[in-house]
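PT: before anyone asks, these are the final sequences, not the draft ones from last week. 448 residues across everything. Please model them as a single complex and drop the result in this thread when it's through.
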Amino acid sequence: MKNISLNIDKVAKFVSKEGIAAYEPQVKAAMETLEKGTGLGNDFLGWLHLPSSISKEHLAELKATAQVLRENCDVVIVAGIGGSYLGARAVNEALSNSFEWLQAKHNGPVMIHAGHNISEDYLYELTEYLKDKKFGVINISKSGTTTETALAFRLLKEQCERQRGKEMARKVIVAITDAKKGAARVTADKEGYKSFIIPDNVGGRFSVLTPVGLLPIATAGYDIEKLVEGAADMEKLTSSEVPFMENPSAVYAAVRNALYAQNGKKIEILVNYHPKLHYVSEWWKQLYGESEGKDHKGIFPAAVDFSTDLHSMGQWIQEGERLIYETVLSIEQPKCHLEIPSDAENLDGLNFLAGKRVDEVNKMAELGTQLAHVDGGVPNMRVIIPELNEYYLGQVIYFFEKACGISGYLLGVNPFNQPGVEAYKKNMFALLNKPGYEEESKAIRAKL
Ligand code: PA5
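LR: through. Structure below.
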């Protein structure tokens, strides 16, 4: 069985192999800090050995709950924001048919997300769509108090009970939240919902391999055992026993810090050539943005979908300010097979491609872009993924998580907190006159 791998050949022009190898002592120290739990944020290291510690019984319980939702719902709404939805959405969209929404028949419930915005139009249109649907809800909030999610859940709970009756609602609403505290826990206990616990020591953006990600993924019909197996294998492949240059997470962390500290590369662009990977990039952006963007430091994580965005962002990447480097998610084998037909008239001049697979053209776009961008001063790394399935997505998840922990410590920040996320919430509550925010309300109004 192959593994995902990291190819850094095209950073050599910018950082030498020796320059990367010189990071070995720092990376080793960062990995030891993670292992021993002696660094900043050490109360949030539950993700580190999570894949290898997930029991068969836990997976069976998740699968049984997913089955109840699959049997009783045509639509399942996953309510959650940030780390409480991006991982599941990333995996589900990567694995599902791009036109799932438009299919007449579904192999399981249609999965929809809510609680990740406060748009009145979005929520109104959602409640309208659900009017004649047999729907259920997975309500995900670690704190149990996040406004976006709580607001959506308030609407969905009422609608579900009204449409489906209290008894069925109790069956098709599942809570994933803290063991003891928060409004989501109180409601789940009072209403008797099936619930799963988000471990205290796993932060939102590292929680995709907890029930936060695993239940929606299982509900969508994907194999969570294979996902966890892939992550567990990557846990081994990135352990301290593996030599530095053979450890993909260690090398990725070292290269990005070298590019940042020595080459002034302040923006990393995660690139894909398959639109179904769009949400893998969204998940990755939160993972790295929230982990490293603090103390006025950190690489800005951006993302593009190529070749689509080559026609919008390509100019900037090729010739704009040289602040950027790229990491490409490169899929070796697409799932489907589609050949380009020959055309008698050849009006579009594409007969030179007749008989070739579409993926061959995509691959040449990828290679041509890589060479052009490197020539243009953009270092380029590739994460090579043999194919898009649960196993390799599990590897991708753990590869990036482990690298993120290492990279944050190399940067000298606490990779596991997110104090900056609170600032907007405080202002919003003050502006909405939330009880308890009287002083803040006065202060903020004086600024208007
Ligand atoms: O990474 C994080 O901690 C955040 O993005 C959270 O996941 C997000 O704010 C949602 O929080 P909660 O799960 O408490 O509703």
